[in-house]
Amino acid sequence: MDRIPDIDPQETREWLDALDGVLEAEGPDRAHFLIEQLIDKARRSGAYLPFSANTAYINTIPVDKQVRIPGDQSIEHRIRSFTRWNAMAMVVRANKHSNVGGHIASYASAATLYDVGFNHFWHGMSDKHAGDLVFVQGHSSTGVYSRAFLLGRIDETQLDNFRQEVDGRGISSYPHPWLMPDFWQFPTVSMGLGPLMAIYQARFMKYLRDRGLADTDGRKVWCFCGDGEMDEPESMGAIGMASRESLDNLIFVVNCNLQRLDGPVRGNGKIIQELESDFRGAGWNVIKVIWGTHWDALLARDRKGILMRRMMECVDGEYQTFKSRDGAYVREYFFNTPELKALVADYSDNDIWNLNRGGHDPHKVYAAYHAAANHTGQPTVILAKTIKGYGMGVAGEAQNITHQQKKMNLDAVRRFRDRFGIPVPDDKLEDVPYVKFDEGSAELEYMRARRMELGGYLPARRRNADALTVPPLTAFERFLKSTDEREISTTMAFVQILQTLLRDKNLGRHIVPIVPDESRTFGMEGMFRQLGIYSAIGQLYKPQDADQLMYYREDKSGQVLQEGINEAGAMSSWISAATSYSSSNLPMIPFYIYYSMFGLQRVGDLAWLAGDMRARGFLLGGTAGRTTLNGEGLQHEDGHSHVLASTIPNCVSYDPTFAYEVVVIIRDGLRRMLQDQEDVYYYITLMNENYPHPAMPAGAEDGIVKGMYLLKDAGKAKGARVQLFGSGTILREVIAAAELLRDDFKINADIWSVTSFNELRRDGMSTDRWNLLHPTKPRKASYLERCLEGRAGPAITWNSINWLG
User: Fold this and answer.
1) 6, 153, 203, 419: which is deepest, by most CB within 10 A?
2) Which H/E stretch holds residue 748?
């Protein structure tokens, strides 16, 4: 916005003097109140006052309000330096003999941000504290490994097998709970998913508290992300929900190093100001950490505000260039007026070069973290300005190529060593050796003491929680019987099964029904009144349908998560619940039902992430197959969700036709996930067609789970014979086809209900692999081969996918 000319400087001075008097006598809170009253009065009087959610391009926390960092800062600096070195060394060493890649620059910019958190804020899981949840930015994993190495949690062999996980002696490229199930909690390198998941994790912790299931007060969710990552729609898409739900247990730390993979994030603008406006406008508490301690004296000298104006007018592309040059360049081009040059006249070029950014200053970072951790009523975002590739010098500091740097020449390694005081002699530099603190050293004892005081090491992941007792199949007896002439859909059967589970004294309170604004479509509106829809503030209004039996009831202890038209948010809630056994030591059973057409294709990245994260729960794809919803047509016809599900190794998918199949599958999933604590989750497609359902054939249970069973045997009739396979909606047409073959063509047909083509395929592939690797052993037969052994005739397969495809 253009600056408005001051037409009466004397009057302006009087107003400013009055404000100074209020600040001095009554403090900033009173000053803020008066200013807001003036603005409100002006607007009510008809004045047009454009709103801006931005503040000056300086630190949010003034020096006199800055909380002092505890601990020994000389020791912490040395720890941080060793961590930086090892993080660099593992990537450089790995790429001397391979092309596995890796990243040096991201952690180099974020080291202080992580170090302050590890030393002073993040609680581990202990008897006194259930633990904070820390979403580590994927590209910074090297620094977390380096710290774990210094603490003796991982060894040198593992560092040397960075990104080479074969045989269990390596460490994964990024945070992957599937590959490192005792270490990483959250997969985050698919950028944008970390911020989205963190928001819903924070909300789910409030949900557990409000339902009286767990004491989550005092636990925080810390999410680290890069400024470039904030361009992902998922990163920003739910920030309004976070403030609406008053998630004061949520803290974002955005590492604003001003660069993404190819160049500046906002070369022609200011990403920190842009993000401040976005988050502040969405209702977040925003803390900017832009300038380090060395700027404090200069800003105190700046009586006319010329330095702050210069800070604001420089765009990020210029700030990047300044840090790729030297002090003389900064003096000439940043302090570019006689007044600004006079401000630093007594500064040497080296002094100017040492004017540090806030994200590299532990004093500024600690003050921001302390303010964020103690803020109530709002989520907080910390915008910390750093330098990408900090410490890499000519090898990549503040250069466009720095994100892709995997190697450093000997001179660059030497400069890095000297800059951070690493005890590696010249004759060893070529090897880029790892460094450690001696047992009993002050640094190692300090690191351990800080973590023990905070409850234990991080990252750390809990593999299991207490097992839950799953009811026997007989508890669902009515679903195993024929419906006779009564016609129902498998969706209706599922809802009734869910209601049965909700009444179970062992499982009921652990169930989390999740719907994205489609409860009435799936016949679940009865749960509104019965269970209540979770709302952090309850229900402040009388619902329009209050006189109805199934009215829309919101409740602070509500059990249903109604996420609105928001598949990504609903999936994130599902993941939070499906991993609660690990993150909160409390097994929960989420059932997320949605249109199958808008399911895995819409949130495929999150579905894969759920597998990586070892989620346990149920996804229900409603109105699957050939929909009969009036007017919906092709846009709702799902012919591919099971193909997508097949790409996720621990997603167990089924396409059942009858109610008894649905209940057998759900009960088996409960057994595997809650009793046996297997790291799998289930995807089940449900139909909306209504038809009679037969009783479960004797002995069918095992086949339903394995993927197929004989639904109807043509018996010993003579003549031609065929094996017919069908799943989901098409199975009823297969049954009709068998009758047609028998009556019109005198061909006998055995009918097989295939509940899961995917499980049959996996079993076949597993059997083939075993036979390939054991050529001298007797050949094994797949489950499908065993089922068809001795049965005559060709096999003809129909399923929803082929039928529609």
Assistant:
1) 203
2) strand 748-754
- CA-closest candidate to residue 207, choices 250, 251, 252, 245: 245
CA pair distance 407, 3, nearest whole angstrom: 47
d(CA 471, CA 88): 53
Whole-number CA gyration radius for the chain:
31
- State the helix-helix crossing angle for 73-97 and 141-150, rounded to 10 degrees: 110
State how far the alpha carbon of 312 is from the alpha carbons of 35, 54, 464, 762, in Å: 23, 11, 51, 59
Q: Residue 534 — φ and ψ, nearest 5°?
A: -65, 130
Beta carbons of 722 and 749 less than 8 angstroms apart: yes
Q: What is the mean pLDDT of residues 513-523?
A: 85
The percent of residues above 90 in pLDDT, for the chain, comes to 82
In terms of phi and psi (left: phi > 0; alpha: psi -120 to 50; beta: otherwise), the region of 137 is: beta
The span from the CA of 508 to the CA of 186, in Å, is: 27
Element (H, E) at 628: none
The rounded mean pLDDT for the chain is 93
For the four alpha carbons of 45, 47, 51 and 56, in that order, the dihedral sign comes to: negative
pLDDT higher than threshold 50 for residue 303: yes
Listing DSSP states for 376-428 in one string gives -SS-EEEEEE--TTTT-GGGTTT-TTGGG-----HHHHHHHHHHHT----GGG
| Residue 630 confidence class, pLDDT cut points 50, 70, 90 | low
Cα separation, 689 vs 491, in Å, equals: 9
Ramachandran area for residue 168 (φ above 0: left; ψ -120 to 50: alpha; else beta)? left
pTM, full prediction:
0.94
Which tokens sit at 610? 């759920």
pLDDT value at position 86?
A: 97
Pair of tokens at residue 724: 């017919």
Residue located via tokens 């974002």: 252
Residue 229 to residues 169, 274, 360, Cα–Cα distance (Å): 31, 14, 20
At residue 800, does pLDDT exceed 70? no
Structural tokens at position 304: 């006319």
Q: Are 273 and 57 in contact (CB under 8 A)?
A: yes
**What share of the chain in percent tops pLDDT 70?**
97
Of 505, 490, 556, 496, which Cα lies nearest the Cα of 527?
Answer: 496
Burial of 130 (0-12, 13-18, 19+ CB in 10 A): buried
